[in-house]
Structure formats: structure tokens, C-alpha cells
Amino acid sequence: MISLITILILLACVILGFFILIQNPKGGGLTGSFGTMSSQVMGVKQSGDVMEKGTWTMISIIGGLCILSIMFFQKPEGADRSGAKATQSKSAPAKKK
């Protein structure tokens, strides 16, 4: 299950990278490319909103999947409560002479 969640996280990261790279830092983005055709193409005026919503959605999905993945981790065998490896044989302290 953890490998499926890891693959989904990586896929969401790639999509998030796509959304970030397609945006223009000065606010133009896709709207600047279609500036003369904005009245003819439906939804181009709001492409910045779509890109911003997509970015926040991908960030939320990645965060949620990371939190969900913690539930599927298992403790390594032989680990005690403090996280340190348990010793196989216990020995008594040395006797004073």
C-alpha cells in the first residue's frame, strides 16, 4: 500500500510542477498568450484562477497523501518503544571483587 501512495505522491508532484511552470510570475500566464482572442475563447480570462486552484489542489493532495502514508509505516522488527534496537541477550553487570 505504501508503494501505491508513493507513486500517487510522485504523480501529484509532477502535475504540481506542470501547474507551477505554466504560470507567469507577473500574472500573465496563459491569458497573455491568448490576449487578442480572449473574447472568442471561452474561459481564457479565468485561466489564472484555474491554474491557482490547480496548484492549491495539488498541494493539498500531496499533503494529505503524505499524512496518509504515515499510517501505513510499520515498526522494524525488534524495535522497542524508544525506537532503539532491542538487544538479543541480556547480561548481568560485572561483579566487584
Describe, in short, the structure shown.
The chain is an all-alpha fold. The protein is built from 3 helices and no strands.
Mean pLDDT: 76
Distinct helical segment count: 3
The coarse overall form would be rod-shaped
Report, as a whole number of angstroms, the end-to-end distance: 57 Å
> Which band does the percent of strand residues land in?
under 5%
Proportion in helices: 40-55%
Q: Structural class per helix/strand content?
A: mainly alpha
Low-confidence stretches: none
Number of distinct beta strands: 0
Specify the biggest β-sheet.
Answer: none
The rounded Rg comes to 26 Å
**Order of SSEs:** HHH
Descriptive overview:
The chain is mostly helical and 97 residues long. It has a domain at 1-16 and 48-71. It contains 3 helices and no strands. The protein has helices at 2-22, 29-33, 47-70. The longest helix is centred in the middle third of the chain and has 24 residues, at 47-70.
Which terms would index this structure?
single chain; 52% helix; 97 residues; mainly alpha
Blueprint (SSEs and pairs):
Layout: H1 2-22, H2 29-33, H3 47-70
Helix pairs in contact: 1-3
